[in-house]
Design brief:
single chain; mainly alpha; 10 helices; globular
Length: about 270
């Protein structure tokens, strides 16, 4: 890759970090396809993506923590399931072809996009069931909500497996899952996801690392730009109208999924 092309690559990846940090996501949904478009193999791109998500999460979580938008107990409980799934997905990703994983990636993107464009919302109540394992009453700042762990833990595990396989942090799945299935307010879901994606990415990264799929030179070169982009994006994310951003971003993801499929078919 020429110096000029790498500079363009660097700027694009930094911009991706800025955008996704504002949404409490890791950016893997774009990190991986951007690397593919610049000629990097799928498995190497997936591992580099997970490493950069860890960097982004470290940076953006600092901002959301100060704003009081991270539900720490919920994040740790759900991530026990998600990180295990991500590790297994990353470990066994080498058993699937890059083409197959690209198609899976496109399906994941398109599915998440539909849920981001359309308005779905559950509002589970905890009255009379606060001590039940399946109903966990939560309160963060002024927000009160109830989490069904019987649903949240298995769904988190599946999200982790998919995330580890295709080299994403699962934020593109976690935010819709928390908001739509578990009734978590959007602002808390975004802030908590910023922290959670780092844990999921760590599980997936070590799975890929054991499979010998890491280009450390490219990853370390991109890390400073991603860290800076995450700081900028997270500070904007505390203030912006997330519902509007989520809708337009969903349309963008639909277009990206279509481009990935077309590129793979024509390749």
């Amino acid at each position: 890759m020429s110096a000029l092309l790498f500079l363009l690559f660097y700027l694009v990846m930094t911009a991706v970090a800025t955008l996704f940090a504002a949404l409490g996501q890791g950016g893997g949904v774009l990190y991986t396809p951007v690397q593919l478009f610049f000629g990097i193999s799928f498995h190497t791109a997936a591992t580099t993506s997970l490493f950069l998500i860890m960097v982004l999460s470290l940076s953006s979580t600092q901002v959301f923590r100060k704003a009081g938008l991270v539900d720490w107990p919920m994040a740790f409980v759900l991530e026990t399931s998600t990180t295990l799934g991500a590790f297994l997905g990353g470990l066994f990703s080498g058993h699937f072809s890059g083409r197959a994983l690209t198609y899976l990636f496109a399906v994941v993107i398109a599915t998440a996009a539909v849920f981001m464009v359309r308005r779905f919302q559950l509002d589970p109540k905890c009255e009379g069931a606060a001590s039940d394992f399946f109903h966990w009453a939560r309160r963060v700042g002024k927000e009160s909500y109830c989490i069904n762990l019987g649903l949240g833990l298995p769904v988190s595990f599946v999200a982790g497996v998919v995330s580890g396989l295709i080299g994403v942090s699962g934020g593109i799945l976690k935010v819709p899952m928390m908001v739509l299935l578990l009734g978590v307010p959007m602002s808390v879901a975004v802030g908590s996801s910023a922290f959670m994606v780092g844990l999921t990415a760590t599980g997936g990264f070590f799975g890929h690392l054991l499979a010998g799929q890491f280009d450390w030179k490219v990853a370390l070169a991109l890390a400073p730009g991603v860290f800076l982009g995450a700081q900028i994006g997270a500070r904007r994310g505390v203030k912006v109208d997330k519902e509007v951003m989520k809708r337009y971003f969903g349309y963008f993801l639909l277009a990206l999924a279509a481009l990935l499929v077309i590129r793979t078919v024509l390749k």
